[in-house]
Specification:
The chain is an alpha+beta fold. It has helices at about 1-10, 20-25, 50-60, 80, 95-120, 170-175, 220-225, and strands spanning about 35-40, 65-70, 90, 125, 130-135, 140-145, 155-160, 160-165, 180-185, 185-190, 195, 200-205, 210.
Length: about 230
C-alpha cells in the first residue's frame, strides 16, 4: 500500500496492481512488454518463491519489462547478478517516502529514456509453442539447433534468459546483419562476442557463456573480430 500511494502520487494515471503472493503476480505476466515495471520485495512471504526466484520467472516470460527490488538488505544486490534478472534499481525500505519517491521518479525517467531509444533499436520476433517474443538484437548471444524430428526448433540464448523457439538456423541468420553462422549448430551475434579462443574453437559472450566455431569459419571470424579489435 505504501508503494502504491507513492507511485500514484508520481503519476495519477499510472495503473498499479499489488500482489501479496508471487503466484498471483506471475499469472498476470503473459508476454514481453517494455511498459511493465515490477517492484519486487526481495523477501516475499507466503510464497513458494523468494523475490529473486520470482524475478527469474518473470524474466522467463517478460524480457522487456523493468525489475526494481525493494528490500531492507542492500547486501543482496549482488544476487541480482547471480540470478541474471537485469534489475534496474535496488531501493532500501528504510528510506523515507520522499526519498523513495525521488528514486522512483529517477528510475521512471530512465525507463522512458530507454523506451525512446528503443524506438530505433533493432528487434526480432520469435515464437514458442505458446508465446510470441519481441527481443532486441543487442540482447541476443546466439542460437543453437535442437535435436527434434521436425528440425524446426532452436535454443535462444540471450543476456538474461534461455528458451526454445520455432525456426531454424538459416532463418535466424537472415534476421539481422549482426548474426553469423559460425558452426553447423550455431548462429552467433558477432556484436556480443567478448573473446574468441581459436585453439578451443569457442567464442565467449561472457565468462561462462560460449558456443563453438567450425574450422572453416575460424579465418573469416578472426578477420571480422580483428576489424572490431576484439581479443582473439
Amino acid at each position: 500500500m505504501r508503494l502504491q500511494l507513492i507511485l500514484e502520487s508520481i503519476q495519477t494515471d499510472m495503473v498499479v496492481q499489488t500482489f501479496k503472493e508471487a503466484d498471483k503476480l506471475l499469472r498476470h505476466v503473459t508476454q514481453p512488454d517494455e511498459n511493465n515495471v515490477y517492484l519486487l520485495d526481495s523477501e516475499l512471504k507466503n510464497s513458494p518463491y523468494g523475490g529473486f526466484e520470482t524475478a527469474q520467472k518473470i524474466r522467463e516470460i517478460d524480457s522487456l519489462g523493468t525489475i526494481i527490488f525493494i528490500t531492507t538488505h542492500s547486501e543482496f544486490m549482488r544476487k541480482t547478478y547471480e540470478y541474471r534478472v537485469a534489475a534496474l534499481d535496488f531501493i532500501d525500505k528504510v528510506l523515507t517516502n520522499d526519498a523513495i519517491k525521488q528514486r522512483l521518479i529517477t528510475d521512471l525517467r530512465l525507463i522512458q529514456q530507454r523506451q525512446n531509444l528503443n524506438q530505433n533499436v533493432e528487434v526480432i520476433e520469435l515464437e514458442s509453442s505458446a508465446e510470441l517474443f519481441r527481443i532486441p538484437v543487442t540482447d541476443i548471444y546466439f542460437f543453437e539447433t535442437v535435436s527434434d524430428l521436425t528440425k524446426r526448433k532452436i535454443s535462444v540464448y540471450t543476456k538474461s534468459e534461455h528458451f526454445i523457439a520455432k525456426g531454424n538456423l538459416k532463418e535466424m541468420e537472415q534476421k539481422s546483419d549482426r548474426f553469423m553462422r559460425v558452426h553447423r549448430s550455431f548462429v552467433a551475434n558477432v556484436e556480443n562476442i567478448k573473446r574468441f579462443d581459436s585453439k578451443e574453437r569457442k567464442i565467449y559472450f561472457d565468462e561462462a557463456t560460449y558456443c563453438l566455431v567450425s574450422r572453416k569459419n575460424i579465418a573469416p571470424l578472426k578477420k571480422l573480430l580483428r576489424e572490431k579489435l576484439l581479443e582473439i
